[in-house]
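dumping this here so i dont lose it
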């Protein structure tokens, strides 16, 4: 199994229209058939700790059965449209991909 985590920092984090547009795009991404499971959200309001980075605007999490499913997702028209129509909203994107050890 492969896990794909993406963190987005919006250019205008307080802009409700920008947040709504990104949220709509993330919902559409989750319709891609090669995704085994997925969800997204905003930083949790937890007590501050030195090891916690809650500076991002949205986190997006998906899992895939295989690398082939992940690669299919990367070139899927819905994913390509998301990048094209939403990339102007963010300053930074950070991705963490990993394979399951258990």
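and the seq i came up w/
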């Amino acid at each position: 199994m492969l896990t794909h985590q993406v963190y987005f920092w919006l250019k205008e984090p307080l802009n409700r229209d920008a947040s709504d547009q990104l949220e709509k795009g993330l919902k559409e991404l989750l319709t891609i058939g090669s995704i085994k499971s997925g969800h997204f959200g905003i930083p949790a309001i937890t007590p501050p700790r030195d090891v916690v980075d809650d500076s991002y605007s949205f986190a997006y999490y998906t899992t895939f059965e295989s690398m082939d499913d992940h690669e299919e997702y990367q070139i899927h028209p819905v994913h390509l449209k998301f990048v094209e129509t939403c990339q102007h909203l963010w300053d930074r994107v950070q991705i963490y991909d990993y394979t399951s050890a258990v």
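The helical segments are 16-29, 67-74, 77-86.
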